[in-house]
Amino acid sequence: MSLIKSISGIRGTIGGKTGETLSPVDVVKFTAAYGSILKKAANGAKKITVVVGRDGRISGPMISSLVTATLCALGIDVIDLGPSTTPTVEIAVPLEKADGGIILTASHNPKEWNALKLLNRDGEFISAELGKELLDIAAAENFDFVSVDKLGKIEQNDTYMQKHIDAILAYPLVQKEAIAKKHFKIVVDAINSTGAIFVPALLKALGVENVIVLNREVTGNFAHNPEPLPDHLTELSSVVVKEKADLGIAVDPDVDRLCFVNEDGSMFGEEYTLVAVADYILSQRKGNTVSNMSSTKALKEVTVKHGGAYYPSAVGEVNVVTKMKAVQAVTGGEGNGGIIVPDFHYGRDALIGIALFLSHLANQKGSIKSLRGMYPDYFISKNKIELDQNTDLPAIFARIKEKYSKLPLNDEDGLKIEFDEDWVHLRMSNTEPIIRIYSESDFELKARNIAQKLMQDIKESM
Questions:
Q1: Contact assessment for residue 93 and residue 100, using Cβ atoms and an 8 Å cutoff
Q2: What is the CATH number of the domain that holds 17?
Q3: Does residue 425 share a domain with residue 356?
Q4: Which domain holds residue 316?
Q5: What's the domain count of the chain?
Q6: Which residue, 333, 353, 372, sits at the end of a domain?
Q7: Which of 74, 115, 328, 419 is the most exposed place for a label (fewest CB within 10 A)?
Q8: Handedness of CA 440, 443, 447, 448 (dihedral sign)
Q9: Contact 276, 371 (CB under 8 A)
Q10: Pair (99, 60) in one structural domain
């Protein structure tokens, strides 16, 4: 059983003791802290409104009822989108001129998990500073609830799926006619969550008539591990081949991560979702790109090819967005299949990603497999070292930094070391005594050898 309190939100398992899991008491406490921050900012000058939406998890209705009731008890009005997606809630917040938003989803975590993801008035994740303030307020548990005649109201609103889709269709780089002319046959793995509602509706709006949906019942009983990784997408791969489909699409439960399967059942590669979409966007408009520094260097190569500049950021969506704003990037995201299109909205969005990817594919003469062949083959080796609680991690990083001081280094987020055409990134976990070691090379064995070398260096530095 787990409860993880971080600056970006609260997540945990359902069932167990208060303070050790995402118990009803903890849901109320952290929701009250969030609402209190919004009320403090308004200082009584206006009525506060918060947009709430959830993915298809079993615990979703229960968590939603706790969240909405707590907000009402603070005198805050709620716009309840019901079953939705993370990017849809992000879009709804500014459209509703709301003061914030709460997304009830544990993203790619298994069904026993849920979470409160917290948004500001722009529909973006709250800052680190605001997150720290929220944790302090929650710890103090000194909340001021309103009297009965000042309770907030709940408005049910189920219009935002269509509003999200309409916005995608209106986006200038989405080529609906070109997509429709291709008569794509597509298999979708909806992982028993809200993607089963939103993705087929989007494809139909784009003119894709032949859609096969796997795991389409929105039950929250995920048919497989919900993280869209190759080992979890064997059913999707086999059905793509069996049905002679043009491609497969997989999303995570809250529809902010996206990956594709080629017509032969092979993986397009989640790292290359962003690469392909960025290639398309940059072919239409010049500009810069951003991804976190644990993502493939293929994005940098594509960006430079189009005359733009690439910038790395610290890991985490809020850090990617901050860097994108600073360098005025035209697109960016994370190598886990998270695509951010800033003039659409500053958040990972699998739905706009699908539309842009299909627009790109529709302009190619060949198949999705041939499109993947346009990009280099790099391999990222992902490893970790578990340490004792009393390990001096900063000292270890300092010694590694000194050893490789003659090479290009970036210590914005842990330590990234560049070796000619290869790189390795060392990061300290925010929640557990672990160092993560990611390395990339054009050969799998070489990437693994780089990671093993740094793991040995770490052990020698302890």
A1: yes
A2: 3.40.120.10
A3: no
A4: 163-372
A5: 3
A6: 372
A7: 328
A8: positive
A9: yes
A10: yes
What are the residues whose beta carbons fall under 8 Å from the beta carbon of 170, sequence distance 6 or more?
Answer: none
The Cα–Cα gap between 375 and 275 comes to 8
Residue type, 154: I
Return all residues near 93 (Cβ < 8 A) that are at least 6 apart. Answer: 51, 100, 101, 119, 121, 122, 123
Q: For residues 205 and 315, state if they share a domain.
A: yes
Tokens standing for 400? 């590694």
Query: Which amino acid does the sequence have at 32?
Result: A
Question: Any idea what DSSP says for residue 381?
Answer: E
Token representation of residue 295 = 């993502």
Alpha-carbon distances of 115 from 60, 72, 134, 262, 407, rounded to whole Å: 9, 19, 15, 32, 40
User: Are 145 and 272 part of one and the same domain?
Assistant: no
pLDDT at 7: 59
**pLDDT mean for each 10 residues of the chain (462 residues):** 74 93 96 96 89 98 98 98 98 98 94 96 93 93 95 98 98 98 97 98 98 97 93 96 98 97 96 97 97 95 97 93 97 94 97 98 96 95 84 87 94 93 88 83 95 92 80
Question: Among residues 372, 406, 435, which one ends one of the domains?
Answer: 372
Cα 454 to Cα 257: distance, rounded to the nearest angstrom = 30
Same domain, 385 and 342: no
Among all chains, which residue has been given the structure tokens 């989007």? 202
Domain CATH for 457: 3.30.310.50
The two tokens of residue 279 are: 């290639």
Q: Is 436 helix (H, G, I), strand (E, B) or coil?
A: strand
pLDDT of residue 430: 62
Distance in angstroms (rounded) separating the CA atoms of residues 22 and 425:
32
Beta-strand relationship, 77-83 and 49-54:
parallel
